[in-house]
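Format notes (please read before filing issues)

Several people have asked whether sequences and structure tokens are stored in separate files. They are not. Every record keeps both together, in the order shown below: the sequence lines, then the token lines. Line labels are part of the format and must not be stripped during preprocessing.
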Amino acid sequence: MTGVALRSVGAADRYDDPRTLYRALADQPGERIDLDGGSIVLVFADGAPGLDRNQVRLWVGMAARAIATYFGHFPIKHYGLLVIAEDSDTVGHGTTFGFAGSATRIHVGRDAAPKAFRNDWILVHEMMHASLPDLPRRALWLQEGNATWLEPIARAQAGELPISDVWSQSLRGMPRGEPMAEEGGMDGTDRWGRLYWGGATFWLEAEVAIWEQSGGRASLVDAMRAVSAASGGNIVTWQPEQMMAIGDHACGVTALEPLYRRFSQDRVATDLGKLFERLGIRSAADGTVTFDPRAELAALAARITRPEAFTKKV
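Then the structure lines:
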């Protein structure tokens, strides 16, 4: 499960083998960060020469806070994070594994400014993967779509991302995930736009289905918290049907299982314009996003990001 960014090739590429990642987490000096619900062992690979460690610690704390805000606590009992210094000014590529414990390796530029850390989405994306069960390769779209949808929501709920950005990203991104004429169901898809944004559209549809079936008593966050608690995160592999069943049970609905069957097997083209209209999300001519509190699903749109958020236009 990967956040994509360009990076230079160097000696740190030896950590591309996940076995060396786990070995580094076990053998190299680490810093333990205790959180409500779990802990992080932060390891600077080979000492990460030239990297601003204090800035990295603040960034890790910010990402953990977003995850804890969404799930109600930090849901990963034992999480290893290997930070690899590289010659760049960005937060780079990240990959998460679970077969020998939840762990992420991520590349960070020695010249990364505070703004690069504040604007980073990759670490929260990877922590989302670690918080939920691994799924078979055919359902990669569920995992990548899930992290694509939930990452900005978690950051917005924690006050780390403007709420309007959650919706502007979706307005721009979700059309890229719509099926092409020759494409069928989502299972097994390998097209980037469909994996990430088509998957994100599924989870937005799931938000709506749960909300409507429960009469506004439940939403996707309730399902995801139950799935995370029951699985313990990506240290286990589940079938998609199990994930859907646990989520439905937690919300008292039968929304996720039929929605998954439809998306996985059939070519589903979502009327995104109508969906966003029902949510009250509108893109203005100047590119800004506004909210209509009179819309049919306005209460759900507010609930997704922060209950008090949409008392006025964003």
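For reference, the curators noted about this record: The chain has a mean pLDDT of 93. The first helix runs from residue 18 to 27.
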